[in-house]
Amino acid sequence: SPSPPSKPPNPNSPPSPKPRPSIPLAIGFPFCDCASYSGSSFPWRVAVANVTSVRVNNIMADRVCVRMYVDPVAAAACNNALGSCCGEGLQKFEFVANGRCKGSILPFTLSTSTEIKSSFMWDSTHPVLKFSRLDIPYADGLAGGASLCFSFKGPSCTKFSELCPGRGCQTAVFSTVSANSPNTCCPKNLVLGF
Hints:
By secondary structure, this protein is mainly β. The chain has helices at about 70-75, 140, 160-165, and strands spanning about 45-55, 60-70, 90-95, 110, 115, 120, 130, 145-150, 170-175, 190.
């Protein structure tokens, strides 16, 4: 039987939003030598907790808080044969980012520390934003994790969606530094939720 005729578009409905430009997933990220890149070797995860609007330097900009935690399901299934990182703390995490945002981010705060940390940097060869020297113990990760918050200040970027537009932020988490390897386990994932 023939299908019914389609309805004409409603002239009063707002136009569909334009899709945000997408930064392609970075081939080879994280750009360092790790014993394991598998999520099965290191149960730490990163998720966006919230994004709020704050006034910085007389402009409105995003304040982003991410939660870093040990996923109990991943911890139960963790495979130490892939890097011996199952019970390790979290040393750092990285975002593949829009290089245009370099210089647009303020120092960050960490819920497990009273100091304002400025030990974030941009990779010298790739547009990667790194938050390092986190030193979050595994036990803290199991007990709910830690929150890391940072704000944009402009001028190039004022929104989290500008840092990693498109599908979300490609991230990697890194185990604590050991005598054997500076980056033993560094699995990557895609962080959504903004």
